[in-house]
Amino acid sequence: MQGRPNILQQTIETALTFLYPAQCRVCKEALGLESVPYMCDRCWQNIHFIQPPWCEMCGIPNIIGKCDACAVNDPRYGKLRTIAYYETALQQAIHLFKFEKRISLAKPLTQLTIKHFPNDCDIDEYDFILPIPIHKKRLRERGFNQATLLAKGIAKTTGVQVVTDALVRYRNTSPQSSLDREARQTNIIGAFELQKKEVVQNKRILVLDDVYTTGATVREAVKVLWNADPVEIDVLTLARALDPE
Fold first, then answer.
1. Is residue 205 within 8 Å of residue 130, measured between CB atoms?
2. pLDDT, tens digit, for every residue of 65-110?
């Protein structure tokens, strides 16, 4: 479903590079032969990666053991890890990739994820990666699911399987990015539906999403997945908001 729109988007993207002067989307400096589209190498190399110590469950930085929130409320996943903070070059890259359909950024974002894969997660231990699904209406509008493209990029390098049809976005919710913290919690309730229980049952699953803000989306997805009795569910996100509203 995502192949044909991607070809068109790549053609449009290539044409735009000839129509407009190339400059870094972060510092606005002119671009030369950079390693990452739309970003100068200096800004890309300044991405702030998340390092331990972190909460052993939700991965919030600068915590040893469990954070207060996880000690009180079990988030249901085994652990959640994030590659880097959602700021500067990474924030711009995800925005371009996701909202401006610059899919040439899928490759460097995938490479970034693989290179900085958390040291307490072993990709070979999972039966498959499950990208957070988007609603079919949004998929038609955007032409791709950004989490699925990232998952398939990881799979191409590591050999891990990707499953995209076990969990579906049943309800077309308002975009989480447009809502405040409280609204995000209620907006996502009932959004997911388990479609293939037998695929999930007795499996070790790595759920993948692009940005972690309040965690409402992944918690709701994980809650639904547990109805199929998997062995383990961990979560990996590419970026984490510094100060979720």
1. yes
2. 999 999 999 899 999 999 999 999 999 999 999 999 999 999 999 9
Determine contact, residues 146/105, Cβ cutoff 8 Å: no
Q: Distance (Å, rounded) from C-alpha 245 to C-alpha 70?
A: 19
**CB neighbourhood size of 13 (10 A):** 18
Which of 243, 223, 242, 241 lies closest to 233, judged by CA?
Answer: 223
User: Residue 50 corresponds to which tokens in the numbers above?
Assistant: 């998340």
Report the distance separating Cα 192 and Cα 140, nearest Å: 18
What is the per-residue pLDDT across 152-177, written as a single tens digit (0 to 9) for each? 999 999 999 999 999 999 988 766 66
* Fold classified for 48-240: Rossmann fold (3.40.50)
Q: Break the chain into its structural domains and give their ranges.
A: 48-240
CA distances to 131, 132, 177, 198 from 167, in Å: 9, 8, 21, 11
Q: What is the DSSP letter of 116?
A: T
Q: Looking at the predicted structure, is the pLDDT value of residue 233 above 80?
A: yes
